[in-house]
């Protein structure tokens, strides 16, 4: 029987924080695990998790080890994160779950689906590409805890909705400002964590092979203006997955969940056959 | 590799928060005079009401025109988000009501706008929220005034009307040591002259009526969330860290992380207290914000010239000026601090006294004659207009203060407050000159 109260949840002996979208886990509902990207936490899903939890899903928006409110140290490779997600399912008592991941989290969801196929119902990969090489200067800045690393990530990560200008501008959430909000979210992550995460992305070379091994349905949500994981590279990855569908979101950069929350929700709702409770 | 690129401040005053209207192509921000918004379907309506999807429901809570101003001001301040309100007073009230309830305590600078002081000293105690006022230059006094039930430290970058400069970094550190946030009223400086978040503040508010709007037309306020204060770690803010029945048990800090305060301020504060900004006013204020850098440069240029003129009067044998206060002057007590926090200018408010007022009334009569002789400066209760303004604080904006409080606020009977506008500086000097002569002729 799956847990319903995750207050004191631990995975491999380490305290783990899981946001459940504003309502407790319900063993009768299919679960979806939301896996954040490098240097982030569960908060990147704030415009999706609540909707999912009120549309038929048990939601587990995790803080990966070393991130947000979870304890422990950040995991050093995509494979370790994938294995940790499966360990999380074990700890909660879930046999299967859908996995939705963003960027680094998308690679982890892909890897988990390839190597732990029996545990993964479906995968939704947001802002993903076959390779995610990280510029050595950015990697060095992130490892050194230099704040310029955060500026580089959010600068490259946002499309016109975040940067504004003659063609863009306008946060989907009334009154919020995308780039300052992303900067604060990342600034709250512990020193050195971003460097570990980016190294994990940089070092993962198995995406193409993993895609070929995925047996469950896959949704790829890609930003048409994504400069970190260009849509073209995401499509290439999708073509290697036996059962995949691609949604390209116009005007969106890499930070899809905050730049285009409704488009992301609409894609997830169709893919996971969500219905209001 | 190339560094990160973001639009600069002057560009953001024109563009942040807006793109050409997708429906019409309108380049200017459309004025959305609508109370409410048609739902796409029942599910979307339910999702909006339960904060599952972002969007507009009813213009008391959010409005597309107002949202552009909110995002623009948040961007200019470097904050995660903002809520615009019916006035600056509504912004202060909203911030306080979001943070605390009965039993809450505030430590505030004694040198603040008289209206803010009225709220804190006379009105909020009726609702169980009390305030201790402290000289803003007395850092030890601020620290000593903080109690276990204190939930906020509040001050103005430039005190009104005494022009004391608040040591924002030091006061922020004192507040943070006690696990409470620092709210700064940044009305007198605007983000063009000072961004309090860069100096450690947690929340910023403005009366948008003043320099942001800049033309003395529309009343409005804003509270901006810096997004850095750790409400969870503090443990003193259940409104942000405990389940809220008003939205099915939502925990704002868990749900929205850095945007917890601003999301609660809107979802509860605007929804329930209802002091929202009208879209017409938001449009007017947006027009002002678009020229904020140009106007602030003009305000500062003229202010420095007028300060120079008043100093000439001060130091000349037959001059009519008894004293001049402006933080850029070498003899101002906060001169060094102003140079550090306000390198682009210390605002466009000057206070001064008239020499030889006589009559044993502390200069009040000379001040009356001066104000009534002015022809270009308008005598009214406002600051930050494009037009130059004048007032006698002791008998108007700060009239509710008793003698002791007036002294604590640095408001003398002879104090004249000038708000320097954008007229030709020579004309302003001529007007001041003739009024000073009229005041001292007796």
Automatic annotation (TrEMBL), chain A:
Ranges for domain AB hydrolase-1: 32-267
InterPro entries per record: AB_hydrolase_1, AB_hydrolase_fold, Carboxylesterase_BioH
Gene3D superfamilies referenced in this protein's UniProt entry, alphabetically: alpha/beta hydrolase
Any Pfam family hit: Abhydrolase_6
PANTHER family per record: HYDROLASE ALPHA/BETA FOLD FAMILY, PIMELOYL-[ACYL-CARRIER PROTEIN] METHYL ESTER ESTERASE
Protein name: Pimeloyl-ACP methyl ester carboxylesterase
The species this protein was found in: Azospirillum picis
Automatic annotation (TrEMBL), chain B:
A GO molecular-function annotation: O-acetylhomoserine aminocarboxypropyltransferase activity
Pfam family, one: Cys_Met_Meta_PP
Keyword Nucleus: no
UniProt keyword Transferase, yes or no: yes
InterPro entries the UniProt entry points to: Cys/Met-Metab_PyrdxlP-dep_enz (IPR000277), Cys_met_metab_PP (IPR054542), OAc-hSer/O-AcSer_sulfhydrylase (IPR006235), PyrdxlP-dep_Trfase (IPR015424), PyrdxlP-dep_Trfase_major (IPR015421), PyrdxlP-dep_Trfase_small (IPR015422)
Cofactor(s) needed by this chain: pyridoxal 5'-phosphate
PROSITE patterns hit by this protein: CYS_MET_METAB_PP
Source organism, top-level taxon: Bacteria
EC nos: 2.5.1.49
Transmembrane segments: none
Keywords per UniProt: Pyridoxal phosphate, Transferase
Recorded family membership: Belongs to the trans-sulfuration enzymes family.
Protein's recorded name: O-acetylhomoserine (Thiol)-lyase
